[in-house]
């Protein structure tokens, strides 16, 4: 992440993320801290697609949007809690590499999942095109310096209803 100038992050959320060990918890916290540091840098473009099955995830997204970081963009999909279709998660780095992970969707342990880094330009291009379609077809909350205040306010209402 630290060497990249363009990051497209598609990490479909499970209703409950349970870090299995202290190493998992620290790794996840390091990912979040690195993402924030990168978004604060003007040289990095970081786009993220969200779902909001938990209060914690929605709070995190709103916090990033509220900071109005120019290089940070976000869109989301309003998926129902009953939606149990496993989704492939991946991150694209500089249009050159795709890292694929977490595809069991919480139905099975992620321990057995294959994690894969691919640099073949054709495969990366396929994932990039797929990501661009997902980002653009979601509800765009923030795109560089443009924030959709009406959509963000809707999410603040959801958070208030959840007691946040």
Q: Could you tell me the number of beta strands? A: 8
Number of domains: 1
Strand count, sense and barrel status of the largest sheet are:
8 strands, mixed
User: What is the second-level CATH architecture?
Assistant: 2-Layer Sandwich
CATH topology term: Endonuclease, Chain A
Q: What's the helix-strand series?
A: EHEHEEEEHEEH
> Rg from C-alpha positions?
16 Å
Q: Termini distance?
A: 31 Å
Q: Main sheet: which strands, in order across?
A: 6-5-4-1-2-3-7-8
Helix content: 25-40%
Strand content: 15-25%
What gross morphology would you assign?
globular
Averaged pLDDT: 85
Runs with pLDDT <50, length 5+? Answer: none
Textual characterization of the structure:
The protein has a single domain (6-161), classed as Endonuclease, Chain A. The protein starts with 5 loop residues before the first strand and ends with a helix. The chain has 164 residues and is of the alpha+beta class. Helix 2 packs antiparallel against helix 4. Strands 6-5-4-1-2-3-7-8 form an eight-stranded mixed beta sheet, sandwiched between helices. Helix content is 37%, strand content 22%. The mean pLDDT is 85. The radius of gyration is 16 Å and the shape is globular.
């Amino acid at each position: 992440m630290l060497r990249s100038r363009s990051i497209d992050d598609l990490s479909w959320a499970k209703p409950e993320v349970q870090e299995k060990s202290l190493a998992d918890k620290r790794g996840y916290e390091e990912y979040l801290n690195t993402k924030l540091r990168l978004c604060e840098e003007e040289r990095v473009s970081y786009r993220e697609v969200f779902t909001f099955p938990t209060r914690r995830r929605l709070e995190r997204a709103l916090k990033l949007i509220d900071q109005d970081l120019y290089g940070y963009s976000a869109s989301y999909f309003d998926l129902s809690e009953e939606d149990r279709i496993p989704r492939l998660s991946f991150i694209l780095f500089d249009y050159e590499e795709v890292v694929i992970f977490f595809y069991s969707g919480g139905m099975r342990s992620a321990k057995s999942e294959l994690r894969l880094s691919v640099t073949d330009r054709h495969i990366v291009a396929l994932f990039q095109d797929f990501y661009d379609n997902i980002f653009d077809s979601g509800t765009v909350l923030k795109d560089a310096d443009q924030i959709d205040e009406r959509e963000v306010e809707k999410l603040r209402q959801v958070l208030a209803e959840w007691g946040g």
